[in-house]
Amino acid sequence: MGEGRGSVQRARSSGLPDGPMPKHAQLREILRELAGGELPSGAAVPSERELALRYGVSRLTVREAVGQLCSEGVLERVRGKGTFTTRPRIDWQVHLASFTEDMRRRGMHPETALLDAREAIPPPATAQALGLAPQETAFWLFRLRKADGMPMAVERGWYHQEAVPGLLDEDLTASLYTLLSQRYRLQLESGTQTVLADDADAETAGLLGIRPGCSLLVFRRVSTARGKPVEDMTSWYRGDRYQVTMQLDRDPAEL
């Protein structure tokens, strides 16, 4: 970073120079350099006041530079805490997998908060997916998933009662797929998953620690075991924390 670091040090000692590049653009590139090298991912960025004093610019200029980098995903604002460099996105490959085991494989500590669990009549789409009769009940779970203490996803799922009797009496803060395997001898063997983008509503945004309207990745998955539908789960993942990778193979019949 030799030359770049020198330019940062000169800016710090003498302020940003007047020139063809606006000062907010100069500051934006300085902060981009800091976020890409000197500061580790997840590190706090100096406050608006400190940056304004350090680089001899107005707080409005600082706010514009930081705002552009937040829009690009280089920085992120956390309400009540400050501005931070972003962490690398988790690359999620589409397959039937436990969130708990997936996070552990990545060296992260998974946590689950059970927000609600009850027996209820599911919406018609879920009743159809699970093969339920009209007005037949199912188990409903509402959970918040975290990794290393950071909220990552909100899950709202329905489970066929005949497949998992007594589910609500179990520990639902651990890996649900491990519970299905060990307690019910069920291995989820196949599933149909729909992926879409959505904006965070107020409730989901509050749970995930983001602003309402922020982008989310939404996964709705209907999974089967022993040839019968067991689970209809919808998960809302933070769009700034996840990306999806899929293996694409051309149909041999088309070659």
TrEMBL record:
Annotated HTH gntR-type domain residues: 20-88
SMART domains: HTH_GNTR, UTRA
Region annotated Disordered, chain positions: 1-23
A single BP term in Gene Ontology: negative regulation of DNA-templated transcription
Domain of life: Bacteria
Gene Ontology molecular-function annotations: DNA binding; DNA-binding transcription factor activity
Keyword annotations: DNA-binding, Transcription, Transcription regulation
Recorded coiled-coil stretches: none
Official protein name in the record: GntR family transcriptional regulator
Lineage summary: Bacteria, Bacillati, Actinomycetota, Actinomycetes, Pseudonocardiales
